[in-house]
Specification:
It comes from Magnetospirillum moscoviense. This protein is of the alpha/beta class. It folds into 2 domains: about 1-40 and about 105-155 and about 235-315 and about 470-530, FAD/NAD(P)-binding domain; about 175-230 and about 320-400 and about 430-465, no CATH class. Helix content is about 25%, strand content about 20%.
Length: about 525
């Protein structure tokens, strides 16, 4: 390495820790910068199971809604886990600290170690050749990094059902977590139904342990996944951060917000920011790797390159929620234990184009907040809670995603005077979005009816742009940034998160973001050590 300056990594989320590991393991000096102070607290080890909470065990209210009743706040339009697993402060100050403004776009971000992996749904799928088109990368280029990330975070799933080829087959997996009775019946019926070439249904794949891994314990199947995991079975980048801090060649600075990245006075880059108390922060680095989340990273990169008043795309995966009812299960009792994140997944081709497909997840309704489900019905509050409580053992709740080609949101860096700037996010969808969503709802209704499940009338509800939190593809590799995420015009600046993805497919993108960041970290380590 030709410089005595460290490699500075902005952020501590999934991308940042994935890039940091190969750099640290290569013996390079790494300095990580984190805007927050502490990760989300781990739930109490003695927390009751969801069944016990619902049947009145002492202390249930505090566990479900928090001592400050924060679990009762309105978070409609967002993932339920954002309300159940995190305090109101989890997403506070993110837009202001990163100088972001939004219009018709649901922006979710956090200034917390580990980033949004503290509350993610943990669904993991590898990209295939169609998903990677335009980058100059092939699945083989990412294969070593996919394996390394899978071994580090722990993936559970199977390799022998219809969805395994969609999620990726050449991966080390722990055994799949068990399906609940409703999912089991739906899958059994599907396997007895005449095949449809456009539709696949199988197990989900999740970054959730079914076996112990290091200091993390396997899922206890207590159905409380949406309220956080005291056993740390659900992966969070905060766990990797603790491992990274054990390396003597890594420094972590907390409570530092990065404001501007610019050319250094004697080579390298200067990173200017401020501490939580307002005092200035200044650092010199040989390289700067930005993994602050696709939206914040885009703002930092555009500002560093001086690209004002030039809109760039802000990719997302338009999403909708829906509810399924299996009439043959009405009257059955709720399971006493089970897995509380996505149990099943499906893929539906939308056209003959290989990248044009919808991907969905199915959750057991008994593992979700009854109040959240009741709020989506036209009934009175009391009537809705009673009805959902009765029907939940026969229900599954679905989330379905379209590829990013159906979104047309943009991000634009604007000067605001006094040498300051901000980035405006404007949410939008394409003309094809509405007809495609309506056709998707009709097709899913028919397909699931053939499999003994009714898509409940009025339950199919699209989200506003951005609410699914699949952001990225703003500065894609191959067309804007380089193979190692290099930002043109700013030597030494690399983007390592979702901002450099070539596109946002319907698949969940975090696993690929991590694998690509690992690949960039490995490539950069080799480049610097060979210099």
């Amino acid at each position: 390495m030709s410089s005595d300056l460290p490699i500075l990594v902005v952020g501590t989320g999934p991308a940042s820790v994935s890039a940091a590991f190969p750099l640290v393991q290569a013996g390079l000096r790494v300095w990580m910068i984190e805007a927050g102070e502490a990760a989300l607290p781990t739930p109490a080890a003695d927390r009751p199971t969801l069944t016990e909470l619902r049947t009145g065990r002492p202390g249930s209210v505090a566990h479900l809604v928090g001592h400050d009743l924060g679990g009762l706040r309105d978070m409609s339009g967002y993932s339920p886990k954002l309300r159940t697993a995190a305090s109101p402060a989890f997403v506070d100050h993110y837009a202001r600290a990163n100088r972001l403004s939004v219009s018709n776009f649901e922006l979710v971000g956090t200034l917390t170690p580990g980033g949004l992996s503290n509350i993610w749904g943990a669904a993991c799928s590898a990209y295939d050749a169609d998903d990677l088109s335009g980058t100059g990368l092939s699945p083989d280029d990412l294969a070593p990094s996919y394996r390394a990330v899978a071994e580090r975070i722990g993936l559970s799933g199977c390799l022998d059902d219809e969805m395994s080829v969609i999620h990726g087959t050449a991966l080390p997996l722990q055994p799949a977590l068990p399906l609940g009775p409703t999912a089991t019946q739906l899958l059994d019926t599907h396997l007895r139904t005449a095949p449809c070439s456009d539709f696949r249904l199988g197990r989900s794949r999740n970054a959730v342990l079914s076996q112990g891994l290091g200091e993390r314990q396997p899922c206890a199947l207590d159905m409380t996944c949406l309220w956080g995991c005291p056993r740390r079975a659900i992966y969070s980048a905060a766990y990797d951060l603790a491992e990274l801090e054990r390396h003597p060649n890594l420094i972590l600075s907390r409570k530092v917000v990065v404001d501007v990245i610019s050319a250094g006075p004697a080579g390298g880059l200067t990173v200017a920011g401020h501490h939580a108390d307002g005092t200035p922060f200044l650092a010199q680095a040989d390289r700067v790797l930005v993994g602050a989340g696709a939206v914040a990273s885009t703002r930092m990169a555009l500002e560093a390159a001086g690209r004002f008043d030039q809109p760039v795309p802000m990719g997302s995966a338009p999403a909708a929620a829906f509810a399924l009812l299996l009439p043959s299960r009405i009257g059955q009792s709720a399971p006493q234990n089970g897995f509380g994140l996505a149990q099943m997944s499906f893929r539906l081709a939308l056209s003959s184009q290989p990248h044009d497909y919808a991907l969905g997840l199915l959750y057991d309704a008994t593992t979700l907040s009854i109040a959240d489900l009741a709020a989506q019905t036209p009934l009175s509050r009391a009537g809705a809670v009673s009805a959902i409580s009765t029907l939940a053992p026969a229900m599954m709740v679905g989330l379905v995603y379209l590829p990013g080609e159906y979104a047309s949101s943009t991000a634009t860096l604007l000067r605001t005077g006094g040498g300051q700037c901000r980035m405006d996010l404007t949410g939008a969808v394409t003309a094809e979005y509405g007809p495609t969503m309506r056709r998707l709802a009709r097709t899913l209704r028919s397909l699931f009816a053939q499999r003994g499940a009714w898509l409940l009338p009025g339950s199919f509800r699209p989200y506003q742009p951005g609410a699914e939190v699949h952001y990225g593809a703003s500065l894609p590799m191959g067309t804007v940034t380089g193979r190692l995420g290099e930002m043109p015009g700013v030597p030494g600046l690399h983007l390592i998160d979702g901002a450099v993805l070539p596109r946002i497919p319907a698949k969940h993108h975090t696993f690929t973001v991590m694998a690509n960041a690992d690949r960039i970290g490995r490539g950069l380590a080799k480049t610097l050590l060979d210099a």
